[in-house]
Amino acid sequence: MAKLGLKIRGLRQRWMISSIGPIIIILVMVAVLAAVSVVSNYYNSARSALTAKAKAGADYFNTYSTDSYGEYYRTATLYAATFEDSDKIELQFLNSAGRIVVSSRGLSAGSAPETAEIAHALESGEIATFSGRDPVTNESIIAVSSPLHFNGSVMGVMRYVTATHQLDRQMMIMVLVIAVALICVVLLIVVSNMIFISNVVEPVAEVTEAAKRISDGSYGIQIPNKYSDEMGELVDNINNMSLKISQGEKMQTEFISSVSHELRTPLTAINGWGETLLADESGDVRQLRRGLGIILKESRRLTNMVEELLEFSKIEDGRFTLQVEEMDLQAEFEDAIFTYRELFRQDGISLEYEEAGELFTQPIIGDPERLKQVFCNVLDNASKHGGSGKRIVTSLHLEDEEYVIRIRDYGPGIPEAELPFVKQKFYKGSSRARGSGIGLAVCDEIISRHGGTFEIDNAEGGGTVVTIHLPIGQESFT
In the structure, what pLDDT confidence band is assigned to residue 453 with cuts at 50, 70 and 90? Predict the structure, then answer.
């Protein structure tokens, strides 16, 4: 049980690693990419908005012509004083040396920001941007510098600066939201998979334990089936397997017991009469003939039983074959009847053959020895189990392109509950007649390999009838 528990835990672990693991990795990668994309978009949007404002402001400022630095200073001071977004953005005017001349906040005049975009704007005459730490204040900022022109040259820079701490806070909140969403999704996946695994693993554990008990010899046990899916089908199959193994074991045990009894009875008779004849010094010829007759009869019974066992072993290990040829079925069937007619007469049983009135000229492809074995076995069974009726009727007819052979006795018949099982191996039912219980199974196998059918039913009016159908022209054998 401990080993089974380790296997089940190993199954859960393999499921988590091979199934949930890749999903979690993909989700983490998607979340990271989403966070990076959101942060990048936010900063790009802020930078684009600031750049648009700087361009618009520079265009507006450049529409006014300035004839001197003093006029430039007055215009810049007036523009800064009327700047509407001074609470969020600082507007600066810098001279050509990169120093602040006017600021919307009035605190940094005369200082030099020393960010790279200022020098780039002064040198190239184009708008330049900067994102990062301010070298002077060490504050995280976004800055956009737009050059101001006078007489075709750059006379200064209009610079917009905004701190990103509020933007960084928003970014942090967005990243946390993505992280929380990711954690919730991962927890949902893990919990749902754990529930699924438990719903699969626990039934597997029960089925595995039951299968182990069956393999240890507890044949016939049944697993309660609480499932309506594939697991339910598996449980049904294992229950059927367990039941069939139990039935097979029971039949095999009964077969061994039956065969042991069947072997013991003729051997006891042979040994007993052998000792009796050896000890008899009277020279009674009738006693001698009677003893030899019993010994011969029991020897034949032993021979038939051994032959049935050999045939059964050939069927089981795949060595059972047919020697097929073109044969006269009517001749083989009549030969079997004539062979048994005298033997049955001695036992007071009448064996009748309904003459067809014509010779069947259509041969079949088959094994004459095997088919004769079937006829003899069925006739022998008819005398054993239906001999009390003192009459056996046989017939051979041609019906719908197949030969139909019927052998009927007038005995007590077969109980209806036993009819479906009489052709199974080792099955003997309630009959007290001697036999190994495999003769009919061998007969059914032989007829099946000839492409025919072997049927056993109770006849109207009492007794049992065996019906054999053999197709004409059958050429495929297994």
Answer: very high
As given in the structure block, the two tokens for residue 182 are 């990711």
Q: Are 339 and 373 in contact (CB under 8 A)?
A: no
Polymer length in residues for the chain: 478
What is the DSSP secondary structure assignment for residue 112, as one 8-state letter? -
Gap between the Cα atoms of 211 and 213, Å rounded: 5
Q: What is d(CA 233, CA 228) in angstroms, rounded to the nearest whole number?
A: 8
- Return the half-sphere exposure (C-beta side, CA atoms, 13 A cut-off) of residue 3: 3
163-172, 335-344, 454-463: least confidently modelled range: 163-172
Residue 50 tokens read as: 């600031």
- Whole-angstrom distance, CA of residue 20 vs CA of residue 133: 42
Q: Using 50, 70 and 90 to split pLDDT, how confident is the model at 2?
A: very low
Q: What is the pLDDT of residues 229-263, one digit of tens each?
A: 777 788 788 888 888 877 777 767 766 776 676 67
| Predicted TM-score (pTM) of this structure | 0.47
Q: Are 437 and 453 in contact (CB under 8 A)?
A: no
Work out the angle between the directed axes of helices 329-346 and 368-386 (0-180°, nearest 10): 30
Asked if 474 contacts 407 with a C-beta cutoff of 8 angstroms, the reply is: no
Burial of residue 438, with CB atoms counted within 10 A of its CB: 0-12 exposed, 13-18 middle, 19 or more buried: buried
Average pLDDT, the chain: 80
Q: How many CB atoms lie within 10 A of CB 128?
A: 23
> Across-strand partners of 397?
404
Q: How far apart are CA 474 and CA 451, in angstroms?
A: 7
Rounded to whole angstroms, the Cα distance separating 447 from 430 reads 25
